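pasting for the record
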Amino acid sequence: MPTPQSAIIPDHCRASIVMEAAITDSDLGKLAAACRAALTSLQALQDKFPNEQLGLTIGFGVDLWAKIAKDGEGSQLKPFRPLGGGLAPATQADLLFHIQSLRPDVNFKLGSEVVAAFAGLASIERETHGFRYIEDRGLEGFVDGTENPQGENINSVAVINDGVDAGGSYVMVQKYRHDLPKWDKMSISEQEACIGRSKTDNIEFDKADRLPDSHLGRTNLKEDGKTLEIVRRSLPYGTVTGEHGLLFIAYAARLWNIEAQLLSMFGETDGKTDLLLKNVTTAMTGAYYFAPSLERLSQLDA
């Protein structure tokens, strides 16, 4: 099977950089050369820091991918659309760079070299640096990523396993800004009701005991009796005195697994909106991307 890009599978990384960019020169030959240069930088840093789990994903928005794709590649890709009457804005870009590892300094070095590789081809529109918080919790105090697939299940959930897109993945990026003073005025029991899980010991409430518009009630979805799983690579971001929240990034072999959760969270399915959106967080961005296999990425102009 072709190889997935290297920021998809490694779990429990400590730091990330997510950059989204607009294409300023769509020459396919130049774009392909820039991707290869970025991969060369990645390999050199992986060789120099072999224990830091350094990974890079380069993803493509629908308009740019349409100029590259052939034989039905990335056929599920679509532009992100606003949801919930504007609760989830659409900020679709052309390119995604997702870097993660155990060390922010190594991430920064790779990020600098990736930007240099794409100089004259892409303009960075958004750049967010994420960090692993205490006990794997979000800034709102709850353990994050509890439902994430582990071990061999990561690959089966995140990566397309056959066909023209084998080794590829669909990606969604959303930046959420938190209002922690508002959240902290709520009691622990009120916060737990919003999540559908206990705060201190991270115990999921029984379905019969949780609110239908709790976060778990909105995102723990099944289709034909099977859970719609995604692989989260989200991390908190921000400064103490400035903006802070969650940089949410999800990978899936099927875009629908991601989209179904969003439609449910933002009230598009039954009019119920995730309580987190009412009480602590606001979506600031939203975009979909397709991340081809490493082999395909290395040969965009082939």
